[in-house]
Amino acid sequence: MSIRELFKKKSKEKNHTIPSMKSKNDVPEGIMTKCPECKFVILTKDLMKNAKVCPECQHHYKMTAQERIEHLLDAESFESMDDHLKTENPLDFPSYTEKVQADSEATGLNEAVLTGVGTIQGKQVAVAIMDAHFRMGSMGSVVGEKITRTVEKATQLGIPMLIFSASGGARMQEGVLSLMQMAKVSVALKRHANKGLLFVSIMTYPTTGGVSASFASVGDINLAEPKALIGFAGRRVIEQTVREKLPEDFQTAEFLLSHGQVDAVVHRCDMVDVMDRIIKLHAGKETDRA
């Protein structure tokens, strides 16, 4: 049975909805949230209980790294790594240091990725969760270093590695130092694979640029959230280059699924169960080989 068949969402059996109401009135700030896709209005607290997924149209809101940790991992199991690493300004790019500092204060993160070790249903995993609220999740030298160190930790412990990508790509303010992180993380993942260990890549909105062209696309299993934007160059750039009109769903998770680039599109509310099954299946195969 293929990965796609195994983890095909049983939409008839599950109904990811929370009762709410429609309203044409202005939405009180903070108390209610209006869906940007279908304009459905829901209590913010109910939206959070539903893993930040619109109960009407299933639109997946962006998650912070901390929110995803709380949703994915067992309570109080997460131990973060390398929170002391700080971004420098190697090219003396104007205002770069100030912008990084502002994002750090706004998000509570030291960089655009949160890394560490935790458990899913009692099974230990290493995780790297990118956060698009920090410099659009762009990958600089500290982001690459943190992910690499986490992969190396997973290799040392002999545990699965999970990477949740949410990125605008390599960070231009660091030039080639940013681009080299693509190769550095990929080499660390290859060493992890050489030990027979599992790497699951989960692509969320957005996964673009150098991140999509490197570690986000080389998982043993590649998953994506519904309607996630996934691609390297932008739609307009591609259309101007090939001189063709691209399909409306181009660079969506569903488009990539139909073309074999991802193994499954997984609803966020199903993610914990899917991860649990993947890890169990991998552990079973390891036992059989032994």
From TrEMBL:
UniProt keyword annotation of Cell membrane present: no
Q: Does the keyword Transferase apply?
A: yes
What is its subcellular localisation? Answer: Cytoplasm
Q: Which cofactor does it need?
A: Zn(2+)
**C4-type zinc-finger residues:** 35-57
Xref: Pfam families? Carboxyl_trans, Zn_ribbon_ACC
InterPro entries named among the record's database cross-references = AcCoA_carboxyl_beta, Acetyl_CoA_COase_Trfase_b_su, ClpP/crotonase-like_dom_sf, COA_CT_N, Znf-ACC
| Single GO BP term | malonyl-CoA biosynthetic process
Task: List the residue ranges of the region (Disordered).
Answer: 1-26
Can you name a GO cellular component term? acetyl-CoA carboxylase complex
Q: In which pathway does it act?
A: Lipid metabolism; malonyl-CoA biosynthesis; malonyl-CoA from acetyl-CoA: step 1/1
Q: Which HAMAP family match?
A: AcetylCoA_CT_beta (MF_01395)
Q: Which NCBIfam families match?
A: accD (TIGR00515)
Q: Which family does it belong to?
A: Belongs to the AccD/PCCB family.
Q: What does this protein do?
A: Component of the acetyl coenzyme A carboxylase (ACC) complex. Biotin carboxylase (BC) catalyzes the carboxylation of biotin on its carrier protein (BCCP) and then the CO(2) group is transferred by the transcarboxylase to acetyl-CoA to form malonyl-CoA.
Listed under subunit, the entry gives: Acetyl-CoA carboxylase is a heterohexamer composed of biotin carboxyl carrier protein (AccB), biotin carboxylase (AccC) and two subunits each of ACCase subunit alpha (AccA) and ACCase subunit beta (AccD).
What name does UniProt use for this protein? Acetyl-coenzyme A carboxylase carboxyl transferase subunit beta
Q: Which organism is it from?
A: Sporosarcina newyorkensis
Gene of this entry: accD
